[in-house]
Amino acid sequence: MGQDDLAQRFNIMEIPPTDTIYAQPRGRVQPFVFDASVAAVFPDMIGRSVPGYATTLSLIGILAARFGQPGTTVYDLGCSLGAASFEAAEAEGDTPYKVVGIDTSASMLERARDLLNEHPPRRPLSFHQGDIREFPLQDASMAILNFTLQFVPRDDRSILIRKIADALVPGGALVLSEKIAFADPSQHEDMIVMHHAFKKANGYSDLEISQKRTALENTLIPETMEEHRTRLLNAGFSRVMPWFQCFNFCSMLAVKD
Ligand code: GEK
User: Fold this and answer.
1) Cα Rg of the chain (Å, integer)
2) For residue 238, how far is its CA from the centre of ligand 1 (angstroms)?
3) What is the widest separation between alpha-carbon atoms in the chain?
4) Number of folded domains in the chain?
5) What was the pLDDT predicted at 221?
6) Is residue 47 lining ligand 1, measured as CB closer than 6 Å?
7) Which of 15, 94, 115, 255 is least enclosed, having the fewest CB within 10 Å?
């Protein structure tokens, strides 16, 4: 994906600033946080770090067109700059639903609101600061967790997924995109090697890759597809369909009948 495609995805006119956060050696690498320095380079960071990110994003509009229902809400949980929110709000068709993006990071939301003011989409869209574990959800036809659940403490994930399932109207769907782990150690290692090669091909140095890995070590906790599937079915979803995978990054669709 070119930087100009990325800029377009994020509704920004100029090439996004380059992520150099881990370019210099750090004595001690602190756990990763979504602060102002991350928000400033976020489109570049996520585009160069998550294989298939732009494709996942671009297809979320198609999923929203399929699952969005009149008079309901599409929630983008852990929305960052609102890239998935904008895709949902601009989805094809004229189904009248609204889109609500939620994130804990004030720095992310400040930028998301600027983008919203600059490019208001066709459907109502609003951004709210809050923790998705506590934020009330209701009358949802679609919920999006685009690379967010992996940052939620593991012990809280089942309650959150159940809350989402309960908030969905019949026929509603959850789009769950995650970095995934593999039970087979060789497969797990193969995927990590390919993911790091992907980052290197996108211009990150070995130092940047290794310092970022340390920063995310206890912050981003991936789970296996089986763990996700079991949790989703236990929460009340009727079926779980992986619909996109690129190396160790996968997006699943969980539908509630
Ligand atoms: C995208 N979905 O561009 N409550 C609310 N927000 C949270 C929580 C929480 N408990 N935990 C983490 N976040 C976006 C990308 S980024 C993924 C999502 C990444 C937020 C956090 O502040 C950050 O903005 C986002 O989840 C994760 O489609 O950076 O790899």
Assistant:
1) 18
2) 26
3) 53
4) 1
5) 97
6) no
7) 94
- pLDDT means per 10 residues in the chain (257 residues)? 60 77 92 94 95 95 98 98 98 98 98 96 98 98 98 98 98 98 97 96 95 94 98 98 97 98
> Would you state the pLDDT for residue 16?
75
What whole-number distance in Å separates Cα of residue 223 and Cα of residue 121? 34
Report which protein residue has its CA nearest ligand 1's atom 24: 80
Task: Indicate the top mutation candidate among 9, 103, 178 to test ligand 1's pocket, ranked by most ligand atoms within 8 A of CB.
Answer: 103
Distances 103 to 27, 120, 209, 227, 248 between C-alpha atoms, Å: 30, 19, 26, 25, 24
**What's the number of CA atoms in the CB half-sphere (13 Å) around residue 171?**
8
DSSP β-bridge partners for residue 174? 143, 254
CATH of residue 7's domain is 3.40.50.150
